[in-house]
Amino acid sequence: MSGFERFMKSNKQPRLNVFYCATDSLRDEKGEPLKWEIKPLTTREAEEIRMDCTGSVRTETGMQTVLSGDFVPRLCAAAVVYPDLKDAALQDSYGVFTPQDLLLELLDSPGDFNALADFVRRQSGLDVSVSRLAEEAKN
What we know:
The structure is a single chain. It is built from 6 helices and 5 strands; from the N terminus they run ββαββαβαααα. By secondary structure, the chain is α+β, with helices and mostly antiparallel strands. A 3-stranded antiparallel beta sheet has the order 1-2-5. A hairpin with a 2-residue loop joins β3 and β4. The protein starts with 17 loop residues before the first strand and ends with a helix.
């Protein structure tokens, strides 16, 4: 096999979903924390979310590009495979209408949410901080 052929898609290793206990507040019948299935986001998925959450604001010095506060919740919601955050019955039970709002209700402890956000970033290869992403979006 030539060096170039090693770059063919058939040689690429898949990135696998992992299981993660996102909160102690949701438990099974044995009292164990529920396991959530998390997928690593692709570059394309993360970039689409970033673009959807990026906007311009007028300041005294001109226009600035900023990330909305919805970026991290949407990034995390996109990575959650199970529970299905798009499930209408689950959304209805919490009185919300979007996957990211449901996620914020399921993980109503800021510590739980921040831990999931860090986990999703690591699993997806987004080890940079959100503040750095926001700074890069400005430039």
